């Protein structure tokens, strides 16, 4: 219950906080053996520096709470990391393109350059992440969701993991559009790692708000991840709202916006300063006609596109679930993915690169474009077909040139692209490298929307044979398609706003939103898990909503059925021996106290430090005392009954923020639900699927 | 706990729902005396119509749940109401303008026209709303917030209120920029009334999900209110997230977006069809330069503007709290506002209109502009000062002409406008008519931003004497200022996104967001209540966050201290007499059952219908039976202790969605917290401020 009522108490004594903290720190300083050691050099300068630092902290603390500096630092750091990653990736991609161009005329050499470059990068990335931190592979969003739901997974938040994932992700992105993997998911994970590190730092500086800060920083970090990945502050916050398991605490709202604004600003500012542009601009500039973005009746077409995207996403998600199943059960895959990760990555990358070789099938799928160029070309505001008819008149550069370079019609190229990328994307997701799936799915959706838009424009201009439908803008359909398809695959709505923020086309907000809502409706129907849910279930992560989507009745299991071995308990009149036994046999912070072992009526709990104090007390005194004479028995605030379902227990545990919930049956203690216990329960339930 | 675990169970038996419901309805039809009456005419046609309706319901239910049709209807209805209101208001405003123009040359007649028209409209609006439904006056957002927090306030949701508020609001808006009041707040209230009505309708059609639907529809309706007021779907949802008291349930997210998209679409489509524009466009079109929206270093200026807006908002809020206090305590005001509402409205309106008369002080504050024209002129993308220097070159229309019509400099006009509107706005808020305060505050902020921007451009171009700062865009500052000031006054962040959605200027998202966050930080510091909080406290509405802002320690009162008289309870072995007494003396649905009146150990609760059944049972049988032999004693799922604070009890009550929480002390029943009891506790606490 701490996080609910801490604010007023902490606010009440803000005034004298500063002085107190200083005193505390000084006291701890004097106590700490390391700092007061007289053999350390420069005693005097160190004392001066320390004094200044304390003064600085007081000054900073006078403006606002320390956690706000943490949020700002989180935004700025993540924004900077994002910019740095984009810069390195673009340099690596340009190197590849330069080499490929230089080899013009030597087809074999070009083939080798085209295939070996991404393969080698993938091998490097895969072996690097595998050897340093195996937890760094994959998207990371399923793990972040489980952590946001309250479970502790310290492996996924280490600084080693941060470093490994960062380098690994650069490798993955540098492999380019051949491998067709993205940045968002791993970047959200990276951001939570930065957040976890900063919250540790904050709690070092700030002594009183430890447990609160960590959870809040995680929620903010999830938002900042998306925001600084694309410089899109609002959709970052919406993403954070969506990934929270069941309830978004409104008090996180302002920190989220503050931090995402810092992140987006940093990302944009660095882009400006590096010479990418004169001012803060959207990532993908579009040239949609502003006077007449779309006809009102086109809304129907956008709705149809949404349903189409939903249907295609179901197909994609089915393939994805199938490959996850194959990886887990097929002995060949198991062997390769456990022992020969680097080789597997190299081979898959080689296969994908061979298929996309521009002199081979690649010419029919615009494989020369990078991810960014692909998206820019698909979002172009002019009709490709009508422009290609009167190509002689055309003077300004056509960003979609690559789509018709093979000489075949753009409909053919787009269809071929969609068919090929479907299986390539499914295959690429099995690569054991840090990689996201959002951006590829976004581009895929844009291609789907483009095909729909171009087709629609062609059909409508043929049907009505008038000028009215001639100015239909297929770029708008690409935008809506991208939002709808990526929303349907991930079962979220924030892509709709993200698409708007990426392009700055607010005129298309309503169509994109409608397409995304309908695509979501189509893809969520019939208990189909989303992309991330499928990974959660496959990895057996403790994430309740995923379980619920796969098996809706599973979270309704009564708590009584799944409770583990009975927890250690103490009776009111416990003596030295019993307390000693309890302290040795369990590690919980809160140990329940009952009236007597026979009646089992729950009285409350004692804290572990108090028990240790009791033990010391007993050892010094001669007369043996009872537990209730020495320790304070705290009342348990919220009690559960064994008939409550697992889902209810989970909701209450996550909402009230206590360490442990006591399960009682008519006042009698039955069991104890803590976070580790809940994790065990959910992991057990996931096995049943 | 129902709303947390209902979904899986309900989903499990979706397949055979349709048939069952049909059977149920048919059975109830046969039972219902009204429908089976043989004297009613047209038996056969009515049966056919009924059959078709049932079939239609089955068909609709097969596509998606009935509640989704409800959400769509809510969006469409509210969008239509919003459009209709805008249309009527614009006609009334045009009539006033036409009359004023016709009287050109007759100053006295013009004065009478200028002052009497809004005064009469205000008198009509005030007396209309007072005589039909007194609950319809004011903004309505404080009441909506209290209802969203879980309290029932049926007076505020009646259909009479809907009608009264709608007509009253048209009157207020038709009084124009003289009275300077807005539409958002009352429209959110209107939308919740429509939502409450639709949820009743839905629960008639759909028999199984009654209690869930009402709460969900309210959350959605709050979002739809903002969305269809301006055709801004995303900021509507963000507003709904912000007004939720402490936790936003993520399951409301998709319904909110779906409904707001429908609302915004309807609003825009009707605008298009009525001939306002050829396509769906933003409400306030701007002409900001797209190539270079702003220099990166201008971010510092935007941050300063945010802090300035925060400071001015503190001043405004202080005045507003002062006038609320005066109204409550000053005997003259009390007398006028209780007995002579219409006269008071008329007089205040006359005073405000006299001051803004264009031949008097009005010429220095652009009083000829309507609210929309004011905002459009302030958001203009060109510098007013530089343009007025070389006025001879200028050919295209200057939308800010009115600001310099008096011949004095625009700085003077803007400053005068800001100074005058401050007290006028505070005075206008006391009018007993349905009226919002968001839009005036938004315009005020835009003027503040404009002044800052124009001043900044002048100073900077003077300082640097170069071309670099010459192209600074004061419209961007007006945008950020509007967002920041309205955000600071209402303590919300959604105005930042609303400003973007209203103008479609995504390039200014980051500056507007930064200004709004800083303004919020400034205005929230030091426990200052927001505009809505002040009204909540003044009206003694049961809204915990408002209380918390005014007195942070008040919600930390232990529940044990404020619990009312002990609730009626039954012992396990209760007989006929005790049960009869309990049924007569209390109206709760859940009646607690204890082991015995001596031990007071809580066993659970019985439901009221079961007690009535028990009474029937006892009357028919001869042998007297005990309660536990006949009734099922349900276990209480969540228990509280008397040491839990009011805030904790409120959070748990609102989160778990039960009817009643039992307060126990070591297993013994101490009291019962229900929603009415919580309302009483909060109202009592509000008296202490």
From TrEMBL, chains A, B:
It is found in: Membrane. It comes from the Eukaryota. The keyword Ion transport applies. GO terms for molecular function: voltage-gated chloride channel activity. The keyword Repeat applies. It is a multi-pass membrane protein. Residues 1-14 have a biased composition (Basic and acidic residues). GO terms for cellular component: chloride channel complex; plasma membrane. Residues 1-33 are annotated as: Disordered. Gene3D superfamilies: CBS-domain (3.10.580.10), Clc chloride channel (1.10.3080.10). Keywords: CBS domain, Chloride, Chloride channel, Ion channel, Ion transport, Membrane, Repeat, Transmembrane, Transmembrane helix, Transport. The chain crosses the membrane at residues 68-87, 108-128, 163-181, 218-241, 253-274, 294-319, 342-361, 422-444. Pfam families: Voltage_CLC (PF00654). This is Chloride channel K. It comes from Mastacembelus armatus (zig-zag eel).
């Amino acid at each position: 219950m701490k996080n609910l009522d801490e604010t007023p108490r902490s606010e009440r004594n803000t005034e004298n906080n500063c002085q107190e903290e200083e005193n505390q720190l000084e006291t701890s300083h004097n106590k700490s053996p390391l700092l007061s050691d007289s053999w350390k050099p420069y005693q005097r300068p160190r004392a001066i520096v320390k004094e200044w630092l304390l003064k600085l902290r007081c000054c900073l603390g006078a403006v606002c709470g320390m956690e706000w500096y943490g949020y700002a630092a989180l935004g700025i750091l993540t924004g900077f990391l994002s910019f740095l990653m984009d810069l390195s990736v673009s340099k690596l991609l340009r190197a590849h393109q330069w080499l490929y161009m230089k080899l013009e005329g030597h087809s074999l050499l070009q083939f080798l350059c085209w295939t070996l470059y991404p393969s080698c990068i993938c091998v490097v990335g895969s072996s690097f992440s595998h050897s340093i931190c195996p937890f760094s592979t994959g998207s990371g969003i399923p793990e972040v969701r489980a952590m946001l739901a309250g479970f502790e997974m310290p492996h996924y938040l280490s600084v080693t993991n941060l470093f490994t994932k960062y380098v690994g992700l650069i490798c993955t992105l540098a492999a380019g559009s051949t491998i067709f993997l993205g940045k968002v998911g791993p970047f959200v994970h990276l951001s939570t790692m930065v957040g976890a590190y900063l919250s540790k730092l904050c709690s070092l500086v700030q002594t009183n708000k430890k447990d609160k800060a960590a959870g809040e920083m995680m929620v903010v970090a999830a938002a900042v991840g998306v925001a600084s990945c694309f410089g899109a502050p609002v959709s970052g916050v919406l993403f954070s709202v969506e990934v929270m398991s069941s309830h978004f605490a409104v008090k996180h709202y302002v920190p989220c916006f503050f931090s995402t604004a810092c992140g987006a600003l940093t990302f944009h500012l660095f882009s400006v300063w590096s010479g990418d542009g004169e001012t803060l601009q959207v990532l993908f500039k579009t040239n949609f006609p502003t006077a007449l973005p779309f006809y009102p009746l086109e809304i129907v077409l956008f709705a149809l596109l949404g349903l189409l995207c939903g249907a295609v996403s179901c197909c994609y998600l089915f393939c994805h679930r199938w490959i996850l199943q194959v990886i887990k059960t097929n002995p060949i895959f198991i062997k390769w993915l456990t022992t020969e990760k680097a080789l597997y990555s190299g081979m898959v990358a080689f296969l994908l690169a061979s298929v996309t070789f521009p002199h081979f099938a690649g010419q029919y799928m615009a494989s020369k474009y990078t991810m960014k160029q692909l998206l820019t070309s698909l979002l172009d505001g002019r009709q490709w077909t009508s422009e290609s008819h009167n190509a002689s008149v055309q003077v300004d550069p056509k960003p979609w040139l690559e789509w018709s370079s093979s000489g075949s019609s753009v409909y053919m190229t787009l269809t071929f692209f969609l068919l090929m990328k479907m299986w390539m994307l499914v295959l690429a997701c099995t690569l054991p490298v840090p990689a996201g799936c959002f951006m590829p799915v976004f581009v895929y959706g844009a291609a789907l929307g483009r095909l729909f838009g171009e087709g629609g424009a062609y059909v409508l201009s043929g049907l009505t044979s008038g000028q009215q439908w001639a100015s239909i803008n297929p770029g708008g359909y690409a935008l809506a398609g991208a939002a709808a398809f990526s929303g349907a695959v991930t079962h979220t709505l924030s892509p709709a706003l993200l698409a708007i923020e990426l392009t700055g086309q607010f005129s298309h907000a309503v169509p994109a939103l409608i397409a995304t809502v309908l695509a979501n409706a189509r893809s969520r129907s019939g208990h189909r898990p989303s992309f991330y849910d499928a990974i959660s279930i496959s990895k057996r992560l403790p994430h309740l909503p995923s379980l619920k989507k796969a098996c809706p009745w599973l979270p309704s299991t009564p708590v009584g059925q799944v409770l583990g071995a009975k927890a250690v308990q103490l009776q009111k009149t416990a003596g030295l021996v019993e307390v000693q036994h309890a302290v040795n046999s369990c590690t919980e912070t809160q140990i329940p106290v009952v009236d007597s072992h026979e009646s089992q009526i729950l009285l409350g709990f004692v804290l572990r430090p108090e028990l240790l104090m009791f033990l010391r007390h007993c050892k010094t005194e001669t007369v043996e005392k009872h537990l209730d004479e020495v320790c304070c028995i705290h009342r348990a605030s919220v009690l559960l009954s064994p008939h409550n379902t697992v889902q209810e227990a989970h909701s209450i545990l996550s909402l009230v923020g206590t360490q442990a919930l006591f399960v009682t049956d008519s006042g009698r203690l039955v069991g104890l639900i803590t976070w580790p216990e809940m994790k065990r329960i959910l992991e057990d339930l996931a096995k049943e699927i």
